[in-house]
Amino acid sequence: MSPLFPALTGDSPAAADRPALTFGERSLTYGELAAAAGALADRLRHADRVAVWATPTLETAVGTVAALLAGVPAVPLNPKSGESELGHIVKDSAPTLVLTAPGTELPAALSGLGRVDIDVDISVCIDVTDVRETRRADLRPPADLGPDSPALVVYTSGTTGPPKGAVIPRRAIATTLDALADAWQWTGDDVLVHGLPLFHVHGLILGILGPLRRGGAVRHLGRFSAEGVARELNDGATMLFGVPTMYHRIAEALPDDPSLAKALGRARLLVSGSAALPVHDHERIAAATGRRVIERYGMTETLMNTSVRADGEPRAGTVGVPLPGVELRLVEEDGSPVAAYDGESVGEIQVRGPNLFTEYLNRPDATAEAFTADGWFRTGDMAVRDPDGYVRIVGRKATDLIKSGGYKIGAGEIENALLEHPGVREAAVTGEPDADLGERIVAWVVPADPQSPPAAEELADHVAVRLAPHKRPRTVRYLDALPRNDMGKIMKRALDG
Ligand code: MCA
Ligand code: AMP
Question: Domain-by-domain residue ranges, the chain?
Fold first, then answer.
C-alpha cells in the first residue's frame, strides 16, 4: 500500500524545512520529524504492539508516526486514565512497549512493559527531497504490510462493560483523510490549530495525522482555550477543529472579545464534530464572525462518514453528505431501508466502506453484533435525510451512552465503579442536557446508609480515580430506591431531574 505520509517518506515534494508539528514553544519541521520518527521506528520494528502515553505533546505525535512508519500497531493511552480502566486496556491490548516523553512518571499498570523514551531532538535534520533515495527505505513501512494491517487500537465505551479496542487499519486512516481533503479542499498549505486530546480519533487521526498526510502543519494548543485559538488564527492558522463544548466556549467569549471574532473571521474552515453543535451556538458564531462552522460526523469504529463540504451549503443542524467512498443508509427497526428521504422519516444510520475498523480486539461477539450479514456497520445513531441527501442526526438508539464534552461514556461502566464504593447500595447513571458539555453525567444513588450518604465529591473522585476524570458524575442525586419494572429492570426514563 502507498505510504501514509508521502511528505515524510519522500514520495511527494515537501521541503525538509517546512513546519510539520508545533506544540507551544516546541516545533519540528518535516526534516526533523523524519529524523526523529525514523530513528524511533528503527527501534520498534520487532515489536508486536506498542502503547503510546498520549499526553498532548510533540512526543505523542512522533511516537505515533514512528509506530506507523514501523508498521507496528499503536494503542494511544489516556494519561488521565484511572487504575481499573488502564489495567483493562493494558491487559486487553497486551503491548510489549510503552512510548513516552522522557522524564514521565508512569503508573504501576505499565510497569511490566518495556519503556521507550521518545527523543524528538535528533540533531540531524533529514532533507526528504535531497536524500530521498538513501533515506526512503528507512522511512517506508515494511513491504509485507497490507491495507488491512492494523495501524491503531483506539478504546471506546459501550453501553455496558469496559471499553472495547477498535482495531483501525491503515486503509481506513488513508481513505478517511483523503475523503476529508476532498470535502474540505484541505491541502499542504493549510495550518490547523486545535487543543483536542490525542488518545481519540478526532484529535489524533484527524488533528495530527491529517495535516501530516497533506504535508501541511498543525499547531496544538496543549490545552484548549479561546485565547489560544485566536492567537494562532491571527498568526496564520487556516483551520480549527473542535468539539461542540469548545465552540460553545468560543461563542460565550465572543461578545466580550472582538479580537476573537476577528481571528475566527480569518479562518478558512471551522469544523466541529464528536457531538451535535447546538444551532444556537452555530448562529452566535456566524453572527459575530461572519463564518459558519461546518459539522462532520464520525465514530471511532468508522472514522469519518459524512461532512458538510467546504463548497457546499453550511446548513446548521446537519452533518452534511456522505464522504467519497462511504455508503450510508437509514434503516427501520426490522432492518429494512427507510422508505423516503423526506427530512422526517427516522432510521438508524448504517455505513459501509473502506473507512471502517476491522474488529473489536478480542471481542468476536461484539464485532459480529456490530455488523449486518452484508457488512453494514450499525452506528446506533438515529437520523433523517433531507431530499438532497443532507443527514440530520436526531438521537441515539441506546440511552445508556452519554456524550459529554465530546467524549462517549457508557452508563454501565460508571454504575459498576459506583457500586464498588462501600457507601453505595444501588446506582444508575443517566445523561442530562448541559449547555456546556452537551450532556452531563448524573448518578442516581441509593446509599448503603441513608443517614450518612457518601458526598457527591467523594463519588466523583472515586470514579475519576478508577476510570477517568471526564467520566466522573457532575451531579449526584440520592434516592431511597431506584424505580424498577416488574422484571426488576431499572426504569431510567423515570429518573428525571
Ligand atoms: C476535575 N478534574 C479532576 C477531577 N475533577 N481530576 C481528577 N479527579 C477529579 N475529581 C480535572 C480534569 O482532569 C481536568 O484536568 C480538569 O480538572 C477539568 O476537567 P473537566 O471539567 O472534565 O474538563 P473540561 O475543562 O470541562 O473539558 C472540556 C473539554 C474536554 C476541554 C471540551 O471535554 C475535551 O477535551 N473534550 C474532547 C473530547 C474528544 O476529543 N472527543 C473525541 C472522541 P485538566 O484541566 O488538567 O485537563 S469522539 C471521536 O473521536 C469521533 C471519531 C468523532 O466524531 O470525533
Ligand atoms: P465515539 O464513539 O467516541 O467515536 O463517538 C462517536 C459518536 O459521536 C457517534 O456515534 C455520534 O453519536 C457522535 N457524533 C460524532 N460526530 C457528531 C456530530 N457531528 N453530530 C452529532 N453526533 C456526532
Answer: 6-223, 293-396, 401-494
Other C-beta atoms lying within 10 Å of the C-beta of residue 355: 27
Question: Are 445 and 475 spatial neighbours (Cβ–Cβ below 8 Å)?
Answer: no
- The response to whether residue 242 sits with its C-beta less than 6 Å from ligand 1 reads no
CATH superfamily of 293-396: Luciferase; Domain 3 (2.30.38.10)
Answer yes or no: are the C-beta atoms of 162 and 88 closer than 8 Å: yes
Ligand 1 pocket mutation, candidates 208, 457, 470, criterion most atoms within 8 A of CB: 470
How confident is the model over 349-389, as pLDDT tens digits? Answer: 999 999 999 999 999 999 999 999 999 999 999 999 999 99
Q: Which of 204, 328, 384, 408 to mutate to test the pocket of ligand 2 (most atoms within 8 A of CB)?
A: 408
Specify whether the CB–CB gap between 102 and 116 falls below 8 A. no
Pairing relation of β-strands 164-169 and 294-299?
A: unpaired
Give the closest ligand to the alpha carbon of residue 172: 1
Kindly list the distances between the CA atom of residue 116 and the CA atoms of 23, 98, 243, 497, in Å, as whole numbers in the listed order: 21, 6, 32, 48
Set of cell numbers at residue 40: 524511533
Joined grid coordinates for residue 115: 519503556
Q: How do residues 211-251 score in pLDDT, each as one tens digit?
A: 999 999 999 999 999 999 999 999 999 999 999 999 999 99
> Residues 407, 246: contact at Cβ < 8 Å?
no
∠ at Cα 297 (157, 85), nearest 5°?
A: 15
6 Cβ closer than 6 Å to some ligand 1 atom: no
- Strands (DSSP E) found in 113-226: 114-117, 150-156, 164-169, 191-194, 217-220
CATH number listed for the domain at residues 401-494: 3.30.300.30
Start-to-end C-alpha separation, the chain: 53
pLDDT digits (tens, 9 = 90+) for 115-152: 999 999 875 555 555 544 444 456 777 878 999 999 99
Atom of ligand 2 nearest to the CA of 300: 4
Instruction: Specify which residues 269 forms β-bridges with.
Output: 239
Rounded Cα–Cα distance for residues 90 and 107 (Å): 12
pTM for this one? 0.96
Contact 398, 412 (CB under 8 A): no
Q: Which residues make Cβ contacts (< 8 Å) with residue 200, sequence separation at least 6?
A: 76, 154, 274, 300, 407
Domain 6-223 fold: Rossmann fold (3.40.50)
